[in-house]
Amino acid sequence: MDDEWICGRLGEDEPWMLGAVNPPIFENSLFTFPNAAELGEAIRNEDERYVYWRGTNPTVDLAQRKLAALERAERAKCFASGMGAISATISSLVSAGDHVLVLGAVYGPTTQFLRYLEKFGVTHTHVVDLDACDSAIKDHTRLLYFESPSYMRYEIFDIPAVTRWAAGNGLVTVMDNTWSTPIFQKPLTMGVDLVVHSLSKYAGGHSDLVGGVVAGPSRLIRPLALTEYQLYGAAMSPHDAAKVIRGLRTLPVRMAAHQERGLAVAAFLEGHPAVRRVNHPGLPSHPGHRLALRQMSGFSSLFSFELATEERDEVAAFLDELRHFRVGVSWGGFESLVNAPALSTEESVRATMGIPAGLVRLSVGLEPAETLIEDLGGALERMGDA
């Protein structure tokens, strides 16, 4: 099925929609049944039946169906945040005494959550590349977790090679696909077992919701939906699900525009003398560019670059010189944002992932690329004059 059809129309011509152009928002906290037998049957299958908001909801279910179809997954489960999806997914796959392999740089709070799991006897090891996995794997390793492109550094991993290695060693693979969205990359078709997303980013697209999703086969999603989803209580609200559905309607169009603007800004920075390097896999100079072209159909507009400094004060001064880029966390909305890990991420976490102090992250929004380039150029010049 075509991605644009999935985003705009999948599930929206069914009788329960009553012909509404926008899906109804079911605000009720519970559903009732004609008799006790039907209630009991529904509770036993609460991952699929509407019983209580904390289980599922028709508006949320429509968002889940669309996201599953986009990822070519059997099922998807939406959460109240990206970390809700990540923590529930990891928890569903490990037990006390298990070990997790983390390939490359990943979202900082994901690493923090893995550290939190140490109190329950779950350990983890960070490795920089697939070759290092051979020496880091243990008898009790159960899970390999990664992002591609990787967090902050935007390195590209050979997804089919990673999944073949993991399957050969009996490991489940979980990949964060937020950067590319399923419009530009479909990891499940390359052997990944489960895919997670922050829906707060490109999927929502308007910086007005927080949400997450995990997608994959029913054999892995159903137990997660019945246990971790229910017990952790990170249920997505129907209002946020409606915003996800709204965001998906324009996702293919927005991603094309993000790609165009992001590449223009990255190309400008690559030629600037005050910039050491630009980490954007869409640039031909990126070490993983050719691999990216094989397993991705496009590039988002989130990337990083390294200033020619290691001083936090100089990095902060550069951010303060910008006029059109807003200083803030998150990404994927209309607005262009700038952030620097040295100002917001634990030094120990940065060291683990090899993120230098001079690294700056840009989320290029949908403003004119020329305006953003002029803004960056002026800030770099004023920084050099200081």
TrEMBL record:
It comes from the Bacteria. Its cofactor is pyridoxal 5'-phosphate. InterPro entries: Cys/Met-Metab_PyrdxlP-dep_enz. Keywords: Pyridoxal phosphate. PANTHER family: CYSTATHIONINE GAMMA-LYASE (PTHR11808:SF80), TRANS-SULFURATION ENZYME FAMILY MEMBER (PTHR11808). Belongs to the trans-sulfuration enzymes family. This is Trans-sulfuration enzyme family protein.
